[in-house]
């Protein structure tokens, strides 16, 4: 492809340097032309590592760069709204790390700003761009496991000893629901094609970690009396699994959200027995970048619209309210 979408990276977070930037470099649609950090030396080091032409010591310069068509924002959560809106006002398309914002209100403001500016906005939930999720939806639709009765999801890890981690800054949008709980919640919405009617969440808020939720367990009630039970945390052994329980079978996904190219398979149990569905080797980050670029070029609509991100934020708002008030919260 002779014409590529030209990216600017706002910030040097690990997810950017280790996952998204390599994905852009390996994609067929895109290239990185600039990177910005508030530490210019850090920006220069990243630019050298990834063979990027321009390194800026502030975020404003990358928005002023006429070579930049789109920006990727991996900043701490409390900065997503500001820099997404500023990027839109500068005419840049925006791919922003999950969660899109701190609240549904902020997410809606970001979506409105990008719509008004005529630019694309997407939430960087890379897992949804792995083709296995569409295949799993096909298996469910075909009735192989019968009517879906329940969902179970988990995403936990433990780095509680790293007290300086940005995940443990309450005013920066830290906490396990924002960081990893959003994954099983998003996956349940994706698979059921519906929005939950109510949530109940119990969380462990840690004074040692700026009172962010270090662990959370919850129940999300969907139409038809189908529920997702989930847990998420930054204070427990590493797990990332999802299970779909049907009347006649079930699907187990052991590496549900973060996968390599050789561990994306899952097991389908049904009346016909059990089988391992091998998922083709693919890089979900690359798929995400290519899908975004093609939406920018109007080759097809975005697979996941900004409205989807707003709805996921409404769910996260309800989860936090439930956890803080220790009550069941209904959603409109």
Please provide a brief summary of the model.
With 332 residues, the chain is α/β, with parallel strands linked by helices. It has helices at 14-26, 40-49, 59-64, 80-89, 104-117, 132-141, 176-192, 284-296, 306-325, and strands at residues 5-10, 30-36, 54-56, 70-73, 93-97, 121-124, 148-158, 198-206, 212-222, 226-233, 235-246, 250-253, 266-270, 273-277, 329-330. The chain is built from nine helices and 15 strands.
Summary tags:
Dihydrodipicolinate Reductase, domain 2; 34% helix; 6-stranded parallel sheet; 332 residues; alpha/beta; 9 helices
List the helices and strands and how they pair.
Layout: E1 5-10, H1 14-26, E2 30-36, H2 40-49, E3 54-56, H3 59-64, E4 70-73, H4 80-89, E5 93-97, H5 104-117, E6 121-124, H6 132-141, E7 148-158, H7 176-192, E8 198-206, E9 212-222, E10 226-233, E11 235-246, E12 250-253, E13 266-270, E14 273-277, H8 284-296, H9 306-325, E15 329-330
Parallel strand pairs: 1-2, 1-4, 2-3, 4-5, 5-6, 7-10
Antiparallel strand pairs: 7-11, 8-9, 8-15, 9-10, 11-12, 12-13, 13-14
């Amino acid at each position: 492809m002779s014409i590529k979408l030209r990216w600017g990276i706002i910030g040097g977070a690990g997810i950017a340097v280790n996952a998204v930037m390599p994905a852009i470099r390996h994609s067929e649609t895109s290239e990185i032309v600039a990177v910005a950090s508030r530490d210019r030396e850090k920006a220069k080091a990243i630019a050298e590592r990834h063979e990027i032409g321009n390194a800026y010591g502030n975020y404003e310069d990358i928005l002023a760069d006429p070579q930049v068509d789109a920006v990727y924002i991996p900043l701490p959560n409390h900065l997503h709204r500001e820099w997404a809106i500023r990027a839109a006002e500068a005419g840049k398309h925006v791919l922003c790390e999950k969660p899109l914002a701190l609240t549904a209100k902020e997410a809606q403001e970001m979506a409105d700003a990008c719509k008004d500016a005529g630019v694309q906005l997407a939430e960087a939930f890379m897992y949804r761009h792995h083709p296995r999720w569409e295949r799993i939806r096909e298996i469910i639709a075909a009735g192989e496991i019968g009517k879906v009765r329940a969902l179970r999801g988990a995403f936990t890890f433990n780095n509680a000893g790293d007290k300086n981690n940005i995940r443990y800054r309450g005013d920066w949008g830290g906490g396990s629901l924002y960081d990893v709980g959003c994954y099983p919640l998003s996956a349940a919405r994706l698979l059921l094609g519906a929005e939950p009617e109510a949530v109940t969440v119990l969380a462990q808020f840690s004074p040692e970690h700026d009172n962010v939720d270090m662990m959370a367990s919850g129940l999300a009630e969907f139409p038809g009396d189908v529920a997702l039970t989930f847990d998420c945390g930054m204070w427990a052994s590493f797990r990332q699994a999802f299970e779909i329980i049907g009347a006649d079978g079930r699907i187990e996904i052991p590496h549900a959200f973060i996968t390599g190219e050789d561990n994306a398979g899952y097991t389908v149990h049904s009346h016909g027995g059990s089988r391992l569905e091998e998922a083709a080797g693919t890089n979900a980050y690359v798929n995400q970048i290519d899908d975004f670029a093609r939406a920018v070029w109007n080759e097809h609509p975005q697979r996941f619209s900004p409205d989807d991100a707003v709805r996921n934020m409404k769910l996260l708002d309800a989860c936090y309210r439930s956890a803080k008030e220790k009550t069941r919260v209904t959603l409109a």
